[in-house]
Structure formats: C-alpha cells, structure tokens
C-alpha cells in the first residue's frame, strides 16, 4: 500500500458562481475550492503533501527539502507541513533575500524554515543536491520534495482529487486550472481515465510552452499509473494545454490577471492569486469571451489556491 498521511480538509466544496456566469454570458461557471484544503491558507500542494509526507515518514526522514520561487505556494505549504508534523525544513529559493519578508516568504520564516538562497534558476538543482548532501552528512535524514510536489508520489493527490470530484456528482463539460510543474494536471488526467470522468481537462500554462507542458504531464501521468500498478500510456496528444497567456513570464502581472482577480472578487467575493489562479482565470475569461466554450456548457474552475501572494509588495498595484 502506498503510504498516505491524511491531514487535508477534504472533500473541498464545489460552488456555483452565478454572478460571474452572468458576466461571462452563455456558460455556467463552478469552482472547486482547493484554496480551502486547510494547511496554511490551503492550496493544491496540500493534497500532494499527504502522499509525499507519507513517504517521508515511511523512510524515517527528519528534514524536508524543496525549492521554489520567493513567493512559492509549494514552499509555504511544505514548510507548514514540516512544522505541523515535527520535521525540520530547508527551502532553496531562487532570487535575492528582501530587506523585509512578506506574503509567502513571511510565512516560510514564521513556520521556522531555513532559507538557502540561489541567485539563478539554472543553479537551483545543483544547490538542492548540495543541500541534501550537507544535511545527510549532518545526520539529518533529508527527504527531497520535488519542485511543485510533482513526481508520481505527489501526483497521486490529484488522481484521488478526481475521484472526489466524481463522487460529488458534478456535471461539467470542462475543468479549467493553472498548470506549471504538471503534477496537478497529470493527476487529474490519470484520475479521469481511471474513474471515468467524461469532461475535458484544460490546463492554462502559467510559465511553460505548450509542448513542454504536454510532454511533462503525459510522462508524469504514465509514471503515476505504473506506481499504482495500473499501467496506462499517455501521449502529449492526450494533454490539453493553452499557453497563450504566459508570454509575459512567470509571476509577471498583466492587465489580464488584474481584471480576472478583480472580476472574481467583485462578482463572487472569491480571491485568486497573482501568479497561478489569476492567470488561469484570465485564460478562462478570455476563452469565454471568444466563444471557445459552447453556449450552455458548464465550466468548473479548479481554484488551486495561492492567495497569500496577494500581500506581496510586488503586487501592491493590483487595485
């Protein structure tokens, strides 16, 4: 049996967004509230961490090690999980240490994570390995949590999230969500095949070209199926990705994200984040206006969380 350490608040709710639906015209919009998974403001990484921590505990690890951007939601949730379950935590963050930490970085410090800074993204993997080697030499028994929690173990969180959605008897022609490291999309894709979801899954790329993300998701879905002992072959053609909205770059706030965040807030009182859900929502809104979705179709927006980033100084001009 694959170890799982259950601590997320599940199932997350599915809610109707009638005022947003009216604003967009001919479609019905629902939201899956994975911003309410319960760990440190919630988010999609909590589902993945149930399996990753299960594996870490089974291996007798003492320290969680992972990496991300300065305002990484993944790092924030990993640091929170480490604090809750008695691990030490080391985060390798790409960038320069700010004079005053804010938003997710503030929470990383609050949870007691040790921060290792690396200036260039190209040096991240080297620094991760050096950190793991140093901790091993110190007798800390590190467990390396992959970037975004996106390896076959972490992907399991979203395989079972799809089973959860089906059990909620949600009828939707489309499921739309932010996609970056690929784990969430790979899990949903595999779960849809295993449990019989008939809707279409559309990942809005946050930072990767379409082909790169399609290949990554297909590989992860195939590897996770093998881990489960239920071999399934996925090809990039099975993975639906729209990369039209990420040309500005990772974490770069454009007017499209600003409008999406304001629209969700002012029609439904629902908060999105500037990097992931804001970009995915901007894609959903643009596609709806272009009549990509057929009149009368139901579109479920999977809110993967990240709201603490709203309070980062770099996004102060949001409103």
Task: Describe it.
The structure is a single chain. By secondary structure, the protein is α/β, with parallel strands linked by helices. It has 2 domains: 14-44 and 150-318, Rossmann fold (3-Layer(aba) Sandwich); 45-149, Rossmann fold (3-Layer(aba) Sandwich). Helix content is 41%, strand content 16%. A 6-stranded mixed beta sheet has the order 1-2-10-7-8-9, sandwiched between helices. The model has no long low-confidence stretch (mean pLDDT 96).
- Beta-strand percent range: 15-25%
* Residue windows where pLDDT falls under 50 for at least 5 positions: none
Fraction in helix:
40-55%
Second-tier CATH architecture of the largest domain:
3-Layer(aba) Sandwich
Count of DSSP E strands?
Answer: 10
What is the count of helical runs? 10
**Mean pLDDT, nearest integer?**
96
Main sheet: strand order: 1-2-10-7-8-9
Q: How many separate domains make up the residues? A: 2
CATH topology name of the largest domain: Rossmann fold
From the spread of the alpha carbons, the general shape counts as: globular
Straight-line distance between termini: 48 Å
The top level CATH class name of the largest domain: Alpha Beta
The main sheet comes to: 6 strands, mixed
* Structural class assignment: alpha/beta
> How large is the radius of gyration?
19 Å
User: SSE order in H/E notation?
Assistant: EHEHEHEHEHEHEHEHEHHE
């Amino acid at each position: 049996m694959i170890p799982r350490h259950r601590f997320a608040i599940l199932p997350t709710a599915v809610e109707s967004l009638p005022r947003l639906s009216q604003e967009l015209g001919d479609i019905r919009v629902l939201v899956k509230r994975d911003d309410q998974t319960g760990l440190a403001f919630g988010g999609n990484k909590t589902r993945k961490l149930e399996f990753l921590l299960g594996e870490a505990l089974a291996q007798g690890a003492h320290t969680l090690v992972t990496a991300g951007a300065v305002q990484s939601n993944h790092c924030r949730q990993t640091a929170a999980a480490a604090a809750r379950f008695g691990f030490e935590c080391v985060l390798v963050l790409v960038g320069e240490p700010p004079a005053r930490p804010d938003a997710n970085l503030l929470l990383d410090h609050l949870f007691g994570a040790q921060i290792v800074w690396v200036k260039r993204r190209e040096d991240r993997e080297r620094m991760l390995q050096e950190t793991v080697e140093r901790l091993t030499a110190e007798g800390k028994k590190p467990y390396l949590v992959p970037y975004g929690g996106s390896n076959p173990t972490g992907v399991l969180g979203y395989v079972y999230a799809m089973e959860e959605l089906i059990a909620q008897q949600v009828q939707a022609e489309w499921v739309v969500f932010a996609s970056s490291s690929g784990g969430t999309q790979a899990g949903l894709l595999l779960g849809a095949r295993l449990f019989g979801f008939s809707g279409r899954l559309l990942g809005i790329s946050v930072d990767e070209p379409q082909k790169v993300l399609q290949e990554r998701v297909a590989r992860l879905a195939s590897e996770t199926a093998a881990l489960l002992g239920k071999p399934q072959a996925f090809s990039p053609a099975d993975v639906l990705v729209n990369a039209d909205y990420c040309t500005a770059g990772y974490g770069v706030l454009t007017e499209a994200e600003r409008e999406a965040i304001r629209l969700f807030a002012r029609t439904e009182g629902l908060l999105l984040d500037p990097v992931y859900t804001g970009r995915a929502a901007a894609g959903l809104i643009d596609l709806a206006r272009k009549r990509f979705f057929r009149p009368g179709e139901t579109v479920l927006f999977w809110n993967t969380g990240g709201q603490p980033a709203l309070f980062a100084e770099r996004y102060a001009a949001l409103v």
